[in-house]
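Most newcomers find our protein records easier to grasp once they have seen one. Sequence and backbone structure share a record, each on its own labelled line. To make this concrete, we reproduce a full record directly below:
***
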Amino acid sequence: MSADGNPDVNVNVDTGSDSGNGSGGYRDRDRDVDRDMHGAGGGAGDGTGGPDDRAGAGAGAGAGADGGGGGSAGRLQSLFEGHRLTPTQRRIAHSMVRRAADVPFLSSVELAELAGVSQPSVTRFAVALGFDGYPALRRHLREIAPAEPTADAGSYNEYQQAVEAEIENLRHLASVLADPRPVERAGRLLAASRPLPVLGLRAAASQAYGFAYFAAKVHPDVRLLHEGGTMAHDRIDAAVRAGATTLLCFALPRHPREVVETLAYAKEAGLNVVTVADSAFAPVAKVSDLLLPAAVGTGLAFDTACAPMLLGRVLLEAMCDGLPDAQARLEEFDARAAARGLFVE
């Protein structure tokens, strides 16, 4: 289902001025399971959580250690699957997923600097994964890395390389969506929440706005939150009083502390938290009930977020499936738009 143009249905926009500035399996805390395609562990390595938290499980169909359709990030997620990682180790894992193509060629010191941890922490991380040390882990990563690029691929300029990386992220997302059940469950949660608060701060503000813009065409009460702090808490309180049961969050790097704090507040208020993030190891994982990962591109000066945007549209489709009057609302909007001459085409 789709429609374009500015909706004249109910979108509550809470304005704010604080906007600006890898991937794994689904994470569903309500089911309390770790599954190959949609289970992921607890926190995301910001210094909280306990040793019983498990690493994010698989990266979707065909993304295992044999180098299938999930690409470099998928192979890493498969490697982490089932291991119990400390918060520091989850931070290392998150950094590796984000720089999956480069990791096989990084020294332990370079990886430590990338993750913001000590070099001995990287060594302990490798041992936790079952290797004798970091050199053995790096050797394994090189063995399972894709073949060297072809001459044509090597001739790509930096802009083309960024596009190719995003294409790989989309392929990985497609492999994860081979199991549609987590997205379908998220769609049902979003459809049932009246109102539906949608949170996105800083780099994720545009993702949240795009979702809310289209969602307002089919959902009776969408409330966009794109400022944090106590103002966001006030909006969450108001949404809960009005009957909200679920909050949708878009969370992209660099992850603002206030996003984690706002999601923790939402959970304390009794809301289910559905989060679209760049990785199952993102800092928002520990405060999300259902985390849907979609990798971002890191090849340019600023991250690119094609996969998270597309996953947001997929969520919209799943939500529409849970709204019996969605088609009627779209047709009503199209009729009003035609009567007003809203579009020029």
Remarks:
- Residues 2-24, 27-70 have pLDDT under 50 and may be disordered.
- The first helix runs from residue 71 to 80.
- The CA atoms of residues 61 and 175 lie 5 Å apart.
